[in-house]
From TrEMBL:
Keyword Phosphoprotein: yes
Species assigned in the record: Actinomadura gamaensis
Modification 4-aspartylphosphate occurs at: D55
Domain of life according to the entry: Bacteria
Keywords linked to the UniProt accession: DNA-binding, Phosphoprotein, Transcription, Transcription regulation
Occurrences of domain Response regulatory (ranges): 4-122
Protein name listed in UniProt: Response regulator
Residues covered by the HTH luxR-type domain: 150-215
Residue stretches in coiled coil: none
Amino acid sequence: MTIRVMIADDQGMVRTGFGVLLNAQPDIEVVGEADNGERALEVAGSLHPDVVLMDVRMPVMDGLEATRRLLADGPDGVPKVLMLTTFDLDDYVYEALRAGASGFLLKDASATELAEAVRVVAAGDALLSPSITKRLISEFARLGAPRGPSRERLDELTERETEVLVLVARGLSNAEIAAELVVAEQTVKTHFGRILAKLGLRDRAQAIVYAYEVGLVRPGE
């Protein structure tokens, strides 16, 4: 299956360069471009890409607000968003993930890193580097008490699904969770799929944010 990508960035050279690199991949096709957040919403609405590469800083409407609006209707039928940034900046990490972004990619990423990032988020995983994950947890620690969604939906999870969610929030991969629980990796994937469905979450990044915000996991645990 070909992954359909849209690139939203106010720099024409970035759009062109990323487009050339991605179109060279046998399983990826760039189907559209936008030079600001408002235009990104229009293009995404008409082309329905699988993944949107969204620059953080753009005129008219920035990437954070465009991401919030693009993903506001919930997890069904919307693209995954991979935020593009020149700098690995603290201020953007937390808000972008709360807005529903699936991860971050620095603009100086190599062709291999770019293509792999698109594949990762298209598959429903989060692209969070160790440095970003560490910073995200630090932000939750700074905020203190849980915020955001209520814990009521947690009651819909089975005991094993809750275990899996806790381990996901601690940054473990599916393979590591499988080893921890002594089950097959496919079993972990099945549990995680049910967790996303029951909680109405889009992907791993949102699951991590949710687990911390409802207090299921606390920094340092």
